[in-house]
Amino acid sequence: MSSVDYRGIMLNSHERFAIHLLHHRGHSIRDISHVTGHDRTSIRHVLRDDPGAPVRKRRARRNLLESFRTQLVETLNKGPVCARALLADLRQQGYKGSRRTLQRFLHEQRAKVLTTREQEHEWMRMVLQGAIEGHQAKAAFAGGTAMEPWTSSSEG
Q: How far separated are the first and last CA of the chain, in Å rounded?
């Protein structure tokens, strides 16, 4: 049998059961270690534990975003967000957490986060929209017909 490299991975309930089963069938700790790829010490620890004991889960940690959660969900429901701007707003409101914590939250919420290019495009769209509206407002204020910025006054 070829061994699988499981180093650094916590044993799950299926692996624990397999270790107990192999030991019950008479395999040595060394053989079980070779087959599963886990250290012999890990195998001994599993065999000392109760085979029916549930695998301990990590306790969920409270993160620094919890107090901002409802506000963030409302913001995310409005549409795509800029993560940098969102982080800056949160920091102004007293958020002391990391950028990575915010990124994990946005990922968990499956939020649409604007890329840098999308942010630039959105900015340009807003600037152009403002320029067009400004030009139309000037024309309406003057009471005349609006001349489009791409036409010249010499054309007849």
A: 88
